[in-house]
Structures are given as structure tokens and as C-alpha cells.
Design brief:
This protein is mainly β. 3% of the residues lie in helices and 54% in strands. It has a 22-stranded antiparallel β-barrel. Strands 3-8-9-6-7 form a five-stranded mixed beta sheet. A two-stranded antiparallel sheet has the order 1-2. The chain is globular and about 75 Å long. The N terminus is likely disordered.
Length: 719
């Protein structure tokens, strides 16, 4: 029985609040804020402050240059500039993050961080709370980037504050917040593959005293794909209201409702035929291996929550974040699985189906205190959080006639009956308590943290009337030290641990032991005084034990023993002039199976992990530049280059994916220069040179074509 889609989903692997922030400000670092609770009521108008800070790595507002861990940031301006349509696209210029795990598929947000593909679907957080999906199934959630203000990417383990998470890191999303001043935007897009979308973003105060503000964000989009008749379609809306109940208390209520009637393509083809030739021929990168009448992926996700903050004093603040998630997923798919024979041009085909219904709760309670003991300034954070998830799944499977990969003919029906293979309930609860102390001693920054978790997992097999359970406790820790020189240089050293319990079972039906990891990281950060520039260099080594994996979708899960990832990452964001910005990144990731019970696998390199990854993005705005007051004054242009090299196609390391380089471009024009106030036009092009390439492989049976050239033209109107 073949469940090809279960493998990529599992083993290929919003509450918004305006509140006062007490930032650790040193030198030129500032933290982006909106008006504190009650401030807007006084009639004072506050300007937005440009930031070089983060909150995801520490759950406190801390300058990036003072954080003893690698943190990258993608803000709203950059997302608009590059025409980002998915979270994967938002992160594709971030070193150490591989976004091409399943090539051109946009169904899920696969983000392989520091080589760890096992956590590529379970490392996303929205407004501080984990986006609760089930990676042992089809129920992994996505958030459309139109609803986001910012994306923070934290490299390395973060279990000390979040509990179960990938040792490669996490991605923290910040949703658009209600504003206490009117801001409205309409956006319309069209492009290749018949893509079209309409979006809106409305915000402003609801009362004369500016105590209550709202935001209503929505989008509708639809497009064809490069794979035959397959389409992508989405409708989403996110209403939110912020109420400054007093000068010290603020609460935001939110909802995020998204329906994807069509989830796009999610399949692969053999290495022989995709990368190398098969019988002297190559499979086209738009080949569709399924059947239109038996192809469906529909996902509905609903989130409701609130974010409450109360300031007890100038130095003590309490917060509570809560979210409920409900989702329904329906899947039907016919897929290819290997050549019928070595001299045949036909692929075997099978069918996978799924019906899933998921419910989840998450809550995080925090108290932050700023204290002083002698010559030491403390920022102390103590918290208790809770997660609960239940997913009811029913999977079906069947067989379909083979298909000629070079001359496909469609219209087939299943061979025999389609039967139920799994009827299960996956349950997980996690309760954690954590404590963190960030100490400032002159120019020294010392961070210490600890967390204790109780995790309960239960899988119920209704077909066989059996249960598999796991009750576990875990301690996670962090220690980091950093010294900030007057000239902006900040060397650091840190140690972090991580754990990742799963719902995967072995051949005996027993749940696998949680994966456990630890990281040592050292590096250098540099932010010149009076500058927006930021340069980072980091060296790391991560070891993860009990890694859950399987070679093919039909195999049982197993623990391979230990994976080790070590490497170097460099990132620079510099403003050569007020109008010209450059972003450059490079990562070297050496990730290997350090210990394995599979003969010949120990010492081999992991899949889905380019050893070399480099990127460069340049953006120039002509506004107030050399062409001030001229016809080019409203013009801005951007060009980017991405390189991926040394990617293995299988765990035996017998084959590699060819290295590839992609070029992206953008051009925009502010039409207020010609009398159309508030109107902006943009054209974004991904894979400008239309390079045909194989992005990655799961094995020699499944390789994934990269996205062809895509062009998007957008007109937006702000008023």
C-alpha cells in the first residue's frame, strides 16, 4: 500500500496586539513599536521606528546584535519588494534555510533549516504560538504572507522557550496589527499560469478616543500550475480588534479563516528520467502523473484567539496568548512510483486518499520583569504554556494503470477497489514551564534559560483496536554570552538543546522515542554605529539523536541513530547609499548520518541539504536620488541571484542533483509621480532565465522539478 503524500508531509521532513515595549536599547538599536496602550488617546501621533531587533529568539524585545544566536529578518517592505507569494519565497534569500525541498509545489511551507528536513513542516509560529499541525498526516497549515508584517528566522534549537521544535530552528511570523490611524490598501495581481488575485487591507480607530482599533485583511487568488490541469486556489480573511481598556491593559481579539479549494501539485518522478536520461529521454518539467478526475486537495483552516497584556508597573508586564485551531483536509491523488521495467517508458501508478479533521489549543502565559541587582541589569521572563492537538484521520489506497511518462494518456479508472488502510486518532499534549534571565553587565550580555516539559502522545488504531502511547518529560537549556564593543562588533558563544516528539510508529506499531538535539554556536555580529547595516558570521555544530526517517513511502519509520550538522553562515545587509541596499548570504552545511543501523549509510550526507548555498539581492530606489524630480523619481528596481550546490539525491549517496543558479528580478513605479496619488505598479519575475532544473530528491524514485519562470504584475492603491 502506497501513501506517497504521507512521506513528504511528515518525514520530508492571529492574535495581534499594540502594547508598550521596554527595549534593551544600546547604541543605535531600536525596536519597532506602535503607540503604547492609552497613548493614542492623548492625541499624540507616534512615528514608526526602523528596527534592528528581534523577539522570537528570547520572547523579549532584544537587539539582534545583542542576541547570542543567529536571527534573520524579512519585513513587510522586503516581501512587497520581492513580490512574495508564499512563506518559502519570503525565506529564499536567507542563508541556512533551504526552500526547495519539494520544488515547485506550494501546498506546504517546507523550510529546511541547517539541513534538518525532519522538522521542515513543524517549525512555524504565529504571533508567538505554534501553528499546530500534524506532520504524521496531511494536516499541515500555511499562512498566506499577505497577512504578515514580519518574518523572523531563528537558527538553531529553541526548545528552551517553545518546547518541542526542530534543532535547525524556527520561523516566527508576526501578523498585521490593528492601527490607531486610518490605513487602507487594495491590491490586484495577474500573471503567468493564468494567476489572478485581489486583496485588501483596511485598518483604523473605531472610536473618537482611539481606544479601539480594527484591522480587516483578506485575499482571493487562483492560478494554474506548470503541471497539467492542476490549480491553486485560496480565499482567506483575518479580522482583528485591539482594545486599550486602560492605560496599562490591552487586548486583541483575532480570527484567521482560510480555505484552499485547490492545493496544487505535490508529487515527483524518478531520478532516471528527471536528472539522468531514461531510454535516452528526459521527462518534461510540466509532466502530470495523475488523473484529473481523481485529483483533489482541499484544506480549510480556522483560527480564533486573543492576546492580552497588562502592565503591572514600569518594570513588570504580564501577557497571555491563546489560540484555537480547527482544520479539515481532503485528499485524492494518483501518483507515479517507479518504472514498470528498465526498458519501459511507463510508470507504475497508485492512489492515495485522505480525510482528516484536526482540533488544537495553544496558550502561553508570561511575566516579564526588569530588575537590577548591584551592577547587573536583569530581564527575567517566566512562563507556562500548554498545547493540545487531536487529529482524526482516514486514509485510503488503491492501484491505477501505468502511464507513459513521455507520451501520457489520461482517463483511466482504478484497478480494483480503493480500500481504507488507516482509521486513526493522533493525540498530543505538551505542558511546559520556563525561566530565562538576560543579564547586562557593562558591555557583557549573558543569557541563561531552562525549561521542563511534560509530553503525552497517543495514537489510536480503530481498525485494529490498538493504542500506542508515549509519556515523556524533557529538560531543555540555553546558555549564551556576548560582548559588545564600542565600534559595533559583538562576538558570542552559545549552547542550546532541543527535543522533538513525534506521532510516528515503527514496524511494531510503537511510537518512536523523541528526537533530541544540542547545538554549540559561536560567531561575530557587527553593526556600525549610527548605521542600519548588519553583518553576521556564525559557526555551529548540531547533533540530533533518535532521528525518525524512512527510505520510501511504503517503509516503516525507524530511528537512524544520530545526525550531525555543522557549518558556517554569513549574512550581510548593507545600505551602500540611502537608495541602494544589498543583501548577501552564504551557508556551508555539512550534515551527515553520524550513527546509523543501515549498512553503508553511516557517514553519508543527508538529502535535502545543499552543502553550498549563496544568494545576493540588490535593490535601488531612484526616489530622491540622482534623478530627483525627474521621470525616474518614482522608479525602483531589484535583482537577485540564488545558488544551490552539492545536493545528494539519496541516502546511499550514489547520485547528486545538479547544481543550479536562479535569477529573480523586480521593477516598481510610484504612479503618484504622474498624478495618481497612492497608486503603485510592480512587476516581479521569479526564475527570470526560465531555467529547467530538478530542485531536490527524496530518493531515486522521487525527484522534484523546480518552478519555471513566473511573472506577476501588481497594482496597489493606498488611501
Amino acid at each position: 500500500m502506497h501513501h506517497v503524500l504521507r512521506y513528504p508531509v511528515s518525514a520530508l521532513a492571529c492574535a495581534c496586539l499594540s502594547f508598550p515595549v521596554w527595549a534593551q536599547q544600546t547604541g543605535d538599536d531600536t525596536v519597532s513599536t506602535t503607540a503604547p496602550a492609552g497613548t493614542a488617546a492623548s492625541g499624540t501621533s507616534l512615528d514608526t521606528v526602523t528596527v534592528t531587533g528581534q523577539s522570537a529568539a528570547t520572547k523579549t524585545e532584544t537587539p539582534v546584535v545583542e542576541t547570542p544566536q543567529t536571527v534573520s529578518n524579512v519585513d513587510r517592505e522586503e516581501m512587497d519588494e520581492r513580490g512574495v507569494r508564499t512563506l518559502r519565497e519570503a525565506a529564499q534569500y536567507t542563508p541556512g534555510v533551504y526552500t526547495n525541498q519539494v520544488g515547485a509545489s506550494n501546498r506546504y511551507d517546507y523550510l529546511v533549516m541547517r539541513g534538518f528536513s525532519d522538522g521542515s513542516l513543524s517549525n512555524t509560529y504565529l504571533d508567538g504560538l505554534k501553528v499546530m499541525g500534524d506532520t504524521n498526516g496531511y494536516s499541515s497549515m500555511v499562512i498566506d504572507p499577505w497577512f504578515l508584517d514580519n518574518v523572523e528566522i531563528v537558527k538553531g534549537p529553541a526548545s528552551v522557550l517553545y518546547g518541542r521544535s526542530s534543532p535547525g530552528g524556527l520561523v516566527a511570523l508576526t501578523s498585521k496589527k490593528p492601527l490607531f490611524e486610518d490605513r487602507n490598501e487594495l491590491r490586484f495581481s495577474t500573471g503567468t499560469n493564468s494567476q489572478r488575485s485581489a486583496a485588501f487591507d483596511f485598518s483604523g480607530p473605531l472610536d473618537d478616543e482611539s481606544r479601539v482599533a480594527y484591522r480587516l485583511v483578506g485575499i482571493g487568488s487562483k492560478s494554474d500550475t506548470q503541471f497539467g490541469p492542476i490549480e491553486e486556489e485560496r480565499y482567506a480573511i483575518a479580522p482583528s480588534i485591539t482594545w486599550d481598556a486602560t492605560d496599562d491593559t490591552s487586548v486583541t481579539f483575532m480570527a484567521y479563516l482560510q480555505k484552499d479549494p485547490e492545493g496544487g501539485y505535490h508529487s515527483g518522478v524518478p531520478y532516471e528520467g528527471a536528472v539522468s536520461s531514461h531510454n535516452g529521454r528526459h521527462i518534461s518539467n510540466d509532466f502530470f502523473d495523475g488523473e484529473d478526475d481523481y485529483d483533489k486537495f482541499e484544506r480549510t483552516q480556522r483560527m480564533f484567539g486573543y492576546d492580552l497584556e497588562h502592565r503591572f508597573s514600569d518594570n513588570v508586564t504580564g501577557r497571555q496568548k491563546l489560540r484555537y485551531l480547527n482544520s479539515d483536509v481532503e485528499l485524492n491523488q494518483v501518483y507515479g512510483y517507479g518504472w514498470v521495467s528498465s526498458d519501459s517508458n511507463e510508470l507504475n501508478r497508485y492512489y492515495s486518499g485522505g480525510r482528516e479533521s484536526l482540533d488544537a489549543w495553544t496558550v502561553d502565559n508570561q511575566v516579564e520583569a526588569k530588575l537590577k541587582s548591584g551592577f547587573i541589569d536583569h530581564t527575567v521572563l517566566v512562563g507556562v504554556d500548554y498545547q493540545k492537538r487531536q487529529n482524526d484521520v482516514e486514509w485510503t489506497a488503491g492501484t491505477f494503470p501505468s502511464i507513459d511518462a513521455f507520451n501520457p494518456s489520461y482517463g483511466a479508472d482504478p484497478v480494483g477497489a480503493i480500500g481504507v488502510t488507516n482509521d486513526e486518532r493522533h493525540e498530543l499534549t505538551q505542558t511546559g514551564i520556563y525561566l530565562q534571565d538576560q543579564m547586562a553587565i557593562d558591555r557583557w550580555r549573558l543569557t541563561l534559560g531552562g525549561r521542563y516539559d511534560w509530553v503525552d502522545i497517543k495514537n489510536t488504531d480503530h481498525l485494529n483496536d490498538t493504542e500506542s502511547t508515549l509519556d515523556d518529560t524533557q529538560f531543555s537549556g540555553r546558555a549564551g554570552v556576548l560582548y559588545r564593543f564600542d565600534n559595533g562588533i559583538a562576538p558570542y558563544l552559545s549552547y542550546n538543546t532541543a527535543f522533538t516528539p513525534t506521532s510516528f510508529v515503527d514496524g511494531n506499531g510503537d511510537l518512536l522515542e523523541p528526537m533530541e538535539g544540542e547545538q554549540w554556536e559561536t560567531g561575530l555580529k557587527y553593526q556600525p554605529p549610527e548605521s542600519r547595516d548588519l553583518y553576521t558570521l556564525s559557526l555551529f555544530r548540531i547533533n540530533q539523536e533518535n532521528v525518525a526517517t524512512k527510505e520510501q513511502p511504503t517503509d516503516d519509520y525507524r530511528s537512524v541513530g544520530e545526525i550531525q550538522s555543522q557549518g558556517i553562515e554569513l549574512q550581510a545587509r548593507t545600505y551602500l547609499t540611502d537608495n541602494f541596499r544589498l543583501q548577501a548570504g552564504y551557508s556551508y552545511t555539512d550534515i551527515t548520518y553520524e550513527k546509523s543501523d543501515v549498512p553503508g549509510e553511516q557517514g553519508n550526507y543527508a538529502i535535502y541539504a545543499p552543502r553550498h548555498q549563496a544568494s545576493l539581492w540588490g535593490h535601488y530606489s531612484f526616489k530622491n536620488g540622482a534623478f530627483d524630480n525627474g521621470a525616474l523619481d518614482g522608479l525602483d528596481v531589484g535583482v537577485g541571484v540564488r545558488y544551490y550546490g552539492d545536493i545528494y539525491a539519496d541516502r546511499a549517496n550514489t547520485e547528486k542533483v545538479r547544481d543550479y543558479t536562479l535569477v529573480d528580478a523586480a521593477v516598481g513605479y510610484d504612479l503618484s509621480q504622474v498624478g495618481l496619488k497612492g497608486v503603485n505598479a510592480r512587476v516581479n519575475v521569479g526564475n527570470l532565465l526560465d531555467k529547467e532544473y530538478v530542485a531536490s530528491c527524496n530518493s531515486l524514485e522521487y525527484c522534484y522539478f523546480g518552478a519555471e519562470r513566473n511573472v506577476t504584475a501588481t497594482v496597489s492603491y493606498q488611501f
